[in-house]
Amino acid sequence: MTETTPNHTQTVNGWAALEANGKITPFVFKRRKTGVDDVTIKIIYCGMCHTDLHHVRNDWGITLYPLVPGHEITGVVTEVGSNVSGFKVGDRVGVGCIAASCLDCDYCRDSQENYCDKVQFTYSGIFWDGSITYGGYSEMLVADKRYVVHIPDSLPMDAAAPLLCAGITVFSPMKQHNMLQAGKRLGVVGLGGLGHVAVKFGKAFGLHVTVISTSPHKEKEAKQRLGADNFLVSTDLKQMQAGARSLDYIIDTVAAKHSLGPILELLKVSGTMVLVGAPDKPVDLPSFPLIFGKRVVAGSLIGGMTETQEMMNLCGEHNITCDIEVVKPDYINEALDRLGRNDVKYRFVIDIAAGKSML
Ligand code: NAP
Ligand code: ZN
């Protein structure tokens, strides 16, 4: 058992990687007692983001071990602190990537907490009290009220869980870059967890959506199930050339090193590509497709709390949920392996309650 700080009095069962590339194993640890601003949550489901895999493998060289991954958390409130008015026991809530921010900078004041330079994440971060944060591959979470959102009643708790990271990560740049305009042409690179939600947002807002993928076998489902209008295999030169200058915007969700050059050629003049995928090595960015098309490449990191709630509400109204495969905690290692092999449609979600008997 890991001891953290003295206020950590609540014992929690979870699942952790103890070292880089280590297998995920049952792990008992402590969380802080519910503070005045805290919301304590019985976790019901937790999505498995590719970022979890990057962290388990220490791809980015920043992982703190033991690592309890998981930042696509849905659950039910079991206790609230005395300063909490927006949440009550029994509420259906979600927690995404953010555990803490300074609350005082321009970005925090503007609810862009994700860009606060003191932001701390739901796992592998350092909370205000000095403790290492542990994520949602666990039975219970104590979260500051500022980083908790309501889940609309119309959304199922399992298929809504990935919205807390995958959903907001594609929604935020779509809003920022004014992409949510009916009739515009959107390209989505990489049809995985993030990508499939981007396709759904695009279709919900009336855009023409093209999937750009390394996996030809995903075409049928992309069109029939997700409603994509077009599908380009990125390794097929002819298809890529035929798509030149056809798109207004592109969201690139690819988790591995690749070249942006051929993808940029798909943008119209002045088109914008937003990178949200976070490969461990720099992507290739040739200058010619940029300068000959006056194109823009931008980045984006998850989203702020106000827009996370806005996105959740929109998903409730438009009935947007994720396509998921629900797994039990004893399947986490296999699920991570499959995620690394690009073998998931399109998000694994852990049924946390099913793990009780396995601890
Ligand atoms: P995912 O489910 O694994 O999807 C990634 C997709 O990229 C795959 O489905 C695949 O689509 C494509 N791909 C092509 N070549 C690949 C390769 N060699 N290895 C892996 N994928 C390849 O991952 P995700 O959860 O959507 O996350 C995608 C990336 O976004 C990760 O790097 C993650 O860390 C990052 N992320 C960033 C933010 C942010 O705030 N910016 C937030 C969350 C996640 P095709 O088969 O269609 O080619
Ligand atoms: Zn994530």
Automatic annotation (TrEMBL):
GO molecular function: cinnamyl-alcohol dehydrogenase activity; zinc ion binding
Annotated PROSITE patterns: ADH_ZINC (PS00059)
Cofactor: Zn(2+)
Keywords: Lignin biosynthesis, Metal-binding, Oxidoreductase, Zinc
All residue ranges annotated as the Enoyl reductase (ER) domain in the record: 19-350
Pathway: Aromatic compound metabolism; phenylpropanoid biosynthesis
SMART domains linked: PKS_ER
Catalytic activity: (E)-sinapyl alcohol + NADP(+) = (E)-sinapaldehyde + NADPH + H(+); (E)-coniferol + NADP(+) = (E)-coniferaldehyde + NADPH + H(+); (E)-cinnamyl alcohol + NADP(+) = (E)-cinnamaldehyde + NADPH + H(+); (E)-4-coumaroyl alcohol + NADP(+) = (E)-4-coumaraldehyde + NADPH + H(+)
Pfam family, one: ADH_zinc_N
Domain of life (superkingdom): Eukaryota
GO biological process: lignin biosynthetic process
Signal peptide as annotated in the record: none
Quaternary structure and partners: Homodimer.
Family: Belongs to the zinc-containing alcohol dehydrogenase family.
Name recorded for this polypeptide: cinnamyl-alcohol dehydrogenase
